[in-house]
Specification:
Chain lengths: 331, 472
């Protein structure tokens, strides 16, 4: 039976964490974790190693108990762990697989554990294998699967019970770029088509930025930033452009870029990066004349006859935020 | 986490423990682990039965003893396989990182344990079934086979279940399956080693008590006395207590105490109630054993007291029904003795002891233990003028000339008293040599058993291969 406060109060909210704490003796692993997740949205769950991400996920998936606090999954309170387990799908970071089962047998087995009859579980397993792109390899032994295929299989297993919330812990870890891209598509598909709330733990910040709607950043067991990805990035203007010129032309380039619309600072790099300039932007994408700031930078350098050897837009903005916020946060 | 309704049934009406059990059975049997262990066991059983039967041809071991030895081996192997599989059941999943996936399903911990447990004990009936044909051929038509099958099934089931549960308990508290296998096998060997000690090492009350309290040794003692020495259940029933208590205690620990301990990590549950439960079961076990321990000692004591109450020995005459016999090695000799009380007083209880002398070796004594299952027989006291007959069997082991004779020893009245044994006439036994390649017809079983299991293994493997795609 669902908790009375949930159906109306959290119509679209599928996960609510309320002031969760977890301590191992004197060491606090999680301190006051609170957030919520809506159906169909993807939440990036970030933090440096040791920040308490895995502990938090294990609490929310009922593998371990919180020291205090409570949480709701699809309306079921944390005092109903078996109900919660029936409403979640989880891909743990290092999930093992029985190598001597076929993929379809593996997913069917879990379907039956979730209460499906034999034929229904097999049908559902076939559908899930199809959904994750493993239909043609369903009758192969799992030991013949690549890492990417195993991750997909793990996701098929996590979706067998039509979960309201899906927890994916480092799903793209160890995958090649193509595999990462395919997994990202799959994550979007889960949120869009299955209308499940997705909690995505990842160290690939560009991936989180590309896929997630919201983000929670943990440091030393505490939430330090949370909100929509655009808000988190917008709050920290970290846009920059990296320009490479001949070493002898660095001073000319610095002079040329002073005063360009949208440029807040120009810094010449030293050491092995000599010849590079970090051009920081003030957040304006376009100058008053309607030109993109990057075009203005390039025009200024050309006008000053500075040879441009290379030009690159700045790295993941979320990464900049993450590094700034979590610096020194590991305990 | 507590509370919440348990998911005890999967869709389609099957309980989830059944689903877990089917998957575990699939891994054990279709994966080939159980079949491989059984194959190794069958090869060993084939070799053992051929050697035993060859010895029987030389009459070193009578059929009853061969059946007992085979049964003893079957139980030991069944227990061994149970310990191995039980010890890997949880820690192995932890090590292979498959436990988390299972714990994330709504299946209750109890259902997981029940499913795993039933799968883990599945090799025992198979091991016992494999041993039955060997016991049949080794019994050579002796009625001991039925007794061995009944009692072997009972004790084997008690021990296989108890040790499998013990292996699973160890597995709960270990992260690595190497550790749990080491500890599980350590427990197994701890109980097994005393069964391999010579009988002289465990005589006297303390020795007998240690035999009784060892759950592996007590059934051995019971089965040997019942099957080989023709003792009755009424005389031996107290030897069934320890395996029964061990069985109940292991299951109680497994399902009441350890079930909540099924966690992702191997940390022991530190809940006060769990500790209380462990303490309660421990106290129960110690109390049960303390309450029951005096039974064998009392039984021994009563036997001694009973003997002491008999009157002084009277003149006795011991007759024998044969004088000279010629046999081939491997053939049995059956004969009867008659003891008569010629006194006007009732005799004390009598011990009839058989002796065999090697006439070719300057009268060296032959150890009757190798020659006969009836080294001694006990005869109740005789009324004045009464007689009693006793049947004997001797297996001709090696060729040569032998003299067999018996002595009737009246039970002395007590400490410091003695009695006057009476000797029988001798039987002059001549044994001629005889050996065969297929002793007792066991060779087809010794070879056929492993071959059949190997074929089964190949069949399962090929059938499995047909059901899967080979993908790289």
């Amino acid at each position: 039976m669902r908790t009375s406060e949930t159906p109306s109060a959290h119509r679209d909210t599928v996960l609510v964490a309320d002031n969760l704490h977890k301590s191992y003796g004197p060491r606090a692993a999680v301190r006051g974790l609170s957030f919520s997740l809506k159906a169909g949205s993807i939440l990036g769950f970030l933090g440096p190693n040791g920040a308490g991400k895995t502990t938090s996920i294990r609490i929310l998936t009922t593998i371990i108990e919180p020291t205090s606090g409570r949480f709701l999954v699809d309306g079921y309170g944390s005092d109903q762990p078996q109900r919660i387990r029936s409403r979640i799908g989880v891909l743990p970071e290092s999930l093992g697989f029985p190598g001597n089962m076929t993929g379809i047998e593996f997913v069917t087995y879990f379907g039956r554990l979730y209460g499906l009859g034999s034929a229904a579980a097999r049908k559902k397993a076939q559908d899930m294998m199809e959904a994750v792109g493993l239909a043609k390899r369903g009758r192969s032994l799992i030991r013949s699967y690549s890492r990417g295929m195993r991750q997909r299989l793990g996701i098929a297993r996590a979706l067998i019970n039509d979960p309201a919330v899906v927890f994916l812990d480092e799903p793209t870890l160890g995958l090649d770029p193509k595999g990462q891209q395919e997994l990202q598509e799959l994550v979007r598909w889960i949120a869009r088509e299955a209308n499940a709330g997705v909690v995505l733990c990842s160290h690939q910040l560009a991936e989180v930025e590309a896929v997630c709607d919201e983000v929670v950043i943990l440091s030393a067991g505490q939430v330090v930033v949370q909100g929509a990805v655009s808000e988190v990035i917008g709050g920290k203007d970290q846009d920059f452009v990296r320009v490479q010129v001949p070493e002898a032309a660095v001073a000319d380039a610095e002079r040329a870029l002073q005063g360009v619309a949208g440029v807040s600072a120009v810094k010449a790099m030293e050491g092995y990066q000599k010849g590079h300039l970090r051009v920081e932007l003030n957040g304006m994408r376009f100058s008053v004349d309607g030109q993109h700031v990057n075009n203005n930078i390039l025009s200024a350098l050309i006008r000053s006859k500075v040879p441009v050897l290379g030009m690159q837009a700045g790295g993941s903005r979320l990464q900049e935020v993450f590094l700034e916020i979590t610096q020194g946060g590991i305990q | 986490m507590s509370g919440g309704a348990e998911f005890t049934r999967s869709g389609g009406g099957a309980p989830t423990w059944w689903v877990v059990m089917l998957k575990e059975l699939h891994e054990l049997w279709v994966g080939g682990r159980a079949l491989t262990l059984l194959l190794i066991y069958t090869v060993l059983l084939g070799i053992m039965s051929w050697v035993l039967s060859s010895n029987s041809e030389l009459s070193l071991i009578p059929p009853k003893e061969m059946v007992f030895e085979t049964l003893k081996g079957a139980i030991a192997v069944g227990v061994f396989i149970g310990v191995i599989i039980g010890a890997d059941s949880v820690s192995g999943e932890r090590e292979r990182a498959t436990l988390e996936g299972l714990l994330l399903t709504p299946t209750s911990r109890r259902q997981i344990i029940v499913g795993k447990f039933f799968a883990a004990i599945s090799p025992w009936p198979a091991a016992f079934s494999v041993a039955l044909p060997y016991m049949w051929v080794l019994s050579q038509g002796d009625e001991v086979l039925g007794q061995a099958a009944r009692w072997g099934l009972l004790f084997g089931t008690l021990l296989a279940v108890a040790f499998t549960a013990t292996g699973m308990l160890v597995s709960y508290w270990c992260t690595s399956n190497r550790t749990s296998l080491f500890v599980g096998l350590g427990i197994y060997v701890f109980f097994l080693i005393p069964t391999q000690l010579p009988g002289q090492a465990q005589t006297g009350r303390p020795g007998r008590f240690l035999q009784w309290v060892n759950p592996m040794q007590a059934p051995d003692f019971f089965l040997e006395k019942l099957l080989v020495n023709n003792r009755t259940f009424a005389e031996l029933w107290h030897w069934t207590i320890t395996p029964a208590v061990f069985f109940a205690f292991s299951l109680m620990l497994l399902f009441l105490y350890a079930r909540p301990g099924l966690q992702l990590t191997a940390a022991r549950p530190g809940l006060p109630w769990a500790k209380r439960r462990l303490a309660t079961t421990g106290i129960f076990l110690v109390g049960a054993l303390a309450a029951l321990a005096p039974i064998p000692l009392r039984a021994l004591q009563m036997g001694q007291e009973g003997g002491g109450m008999m009157s002084q020995a009277a003149p006795l005459v011991l007759g024998i029904d044969q004088t000279t016999v010629t046999l081939r090695a491997g053939e049995p000799l059956f004969f009867e003795t008659t003891v008569t009380n010629n006194s006007s007083q009732p005799s004390a209880d009598l011990i009839l002891a058989m002796n065999i002398i090697n006439l070719d070796a300057m009268g060296d004594i032959v150890d009757p233990e190798d020659w006969s299952p009836q080294r001694t027989q006990y005869q109740a006291g005789l009324a004045p003028g009464a007689s009693a007959s006793n049947s004997w069997r001797v297996n001709a082991i090696v060729d040569g000339d032998f003299m067999i004779y018996l002595v009737a020893i009246p039970q002395p009245a007590g400490e410091g008293a003695t009695s006057h044994p009476a000797a029988s006439p001798g039987i002059h036994l001549t044994v001629t040599p005889f050996t065969r390649l297929n002793p007792g017809g066991v060779l087809p079983f010794a070879i056929g058993g492993p071959v059949l299991l190997l074929l089964a293994l190949i069949y399962v493997y090929r059938r499995r291969r047909r059901g899967i795609d080979e993908g790289g």
